[in-house]
Amino acid sequence: MGSSVNGGPGGRVSNNGVDKGVDFANYFCTYSFLYHQKEMLCDRVRMDAYYNAVFQNKEQFVGKVVLDVGTGSGILAIWSAQAGAKKVYAVEATKMSEHARELVKANGLEGVVEVIEGTVEDINLPEKVDIIISEWMGYFLLRESMFDSVIVARDRWLKPTGAMYPSHARMWLAPIKTGLGDQRINDYESSTDDWHRFLDETNTYYGVDMSVLTRPFCEEQNKYYLQTSIWNNLHPHQLIGIPGIIKEIDCLTATVEEILNVRANISSSITEEKTRLCGFAGWFDVHFRGSKQSPARLEIELTTAPSENNGTHWGQQVFLLHPTPRVGKGDDVLISFSMDRSKENHRLMEVEFGLEMRHLAGRNPQPIKKKFYIE
């Protein structure tokens, strides 16, 4: 994944009211380091999916004009050229563009691939393109809000008959069992215990009573340990209910307004005998289908679902419940899900769950409401 969302130095304000200089400092700079690019390039699930999407559908690229949004190291642009594209515009917002340019040259493709430093919101191309390729997905798909830039690129530069790679995306949610919740509670309690030791020592040795800060400190730690989602690569056996789709996106027609928030009501039937509902896992998959006018010969899927062997650098977002209600096979968990962009940082997300358990036997517990942060 590269970078190309409403960014760039200079203190300008984008159409969505975000200061571009602040956005560049907070977000884009991460992608200007090779170590971060290497992390993504070592993700074999990610790499194989994009490689196969391009080279198993070479006829879609031969003689075509391609735009790579957020090119990063330039790998997708290089593959597009190797597959037969006659011209590839590789757009990158950071100085990683210099490395991409060198890589293109080292692979003898400087006559085909043109690396452009800038954002798709600001740059201009001399022509419309046949294909937009981009690895824009963040944690739980929409974190980072990079898909905004892909939509801008599509609306500005894609031909009416053009194709998007990937073409479709889905967000999934499922109930899970895990020991992560106990670990987080222990970490939270250790943090607050340490705070009280700090108060005693500061008062004893330095004569300053700082206990007035206890409440905001505990609120801060509570948010970090108990309300912030966790990145994790789960095993399939940790799923205790049937996964449900909470969002489907057609990359060819989606609008920014459509992805500003996600709302879903789903029901998941518990598949495991007598266990605890420790929380939920959220993940995504994307599909490379081409377009109606130019369908892919072979559809490729990239999934970040819990896996026995091949985890991804995205993993899953884990939302932990405290306390953990008891559930059993055949029980239904009714989930009301909402996800919005953070008001403080449009690249981060705020999530709210509303839960109702319907047990096959016994009294149903009170509904649960919980707020989480994806940071």
Provide a descriptive summary of the structure in words:
- Its EC number is 2.1.1.319.
- Ring-like homodimer.
- Residues 66-162 form the Methyltransferase domain.
- The chain is α+β, with helices and mostly antiparallel strands and 375 residues long.
- It folds into three domains: 20-165, Vaccinia Virus protein VP39 (Rossmann fold, 3-Layer(aba) Sandwich); 171-177 and 230-374, Distorted Sandwich (Hnrnp arginine n-methyltransferase1); 180-227, no CATH class.
- The protein contains nine helices and 17 strands.
- The longest helix has 27 residues, at 180-206.
- The radius of gyration is 23 Å and the shape is globular.
Which regions contain 5 or more consecutive residues with pLDDT less than 50?
A: 4-15
Q: Name the structural class.
A: alpha+beta
SSE sequence, one letter per element: HHHEHEHEEHEEHHEEHEEEEEEEEE
Main beta sheet, described?
Answer: 6 strands, antiparallel
Fraction in helix: 25-40%
